[in-house]
Predict the structure of DUF2852 domain-containing protein.
Amino acid sequence: MNTTTAPRSSVMERIGSALAGIRDWLDERGKAAWIMAMILGFVAAWPVGLAILGYMIWSKRMFSCRHRHERHAFRNGRGYAGFSAPTGNAAFDAYRDETLKRLEDEHREFLDFLQKLREAKDKAEFDQFMQGRKEPRELSN
């Protein structure tokens, strides 16, 4: 019975990752790329252009893309690349590298924790839904 939800979630994940890729690609090219995408959206179909404009305003991309690009650099596996230049002080460089690695590990563990928390919440809601479906049938018999 659970086979119907698995394909849907993978399709939604694919769509989400494709949209995230487009977002990151546009962020790398800056505000002009977002404006061009919005104009092309209006030309192709006005609701698409309106949706892009709404997203640009909601996500504050209308005002600046630079901070978004820097934040996504960490997520894309580049880590804290801007902090990796040696300072000349070997003790400090070792401490910094160790601290950054610890922070990356904690970040990864926190994301895993959040994922498990979401899954537990979803399971609890589903169990409550299934319990609610069983109760009326038991009362009618």
Observations:
- Residues 1-78 form one domain.
- The two ends are 25 Å apart (CA to CA).
- Residues 27 and 67 are 9 Å apart (CA to CA).
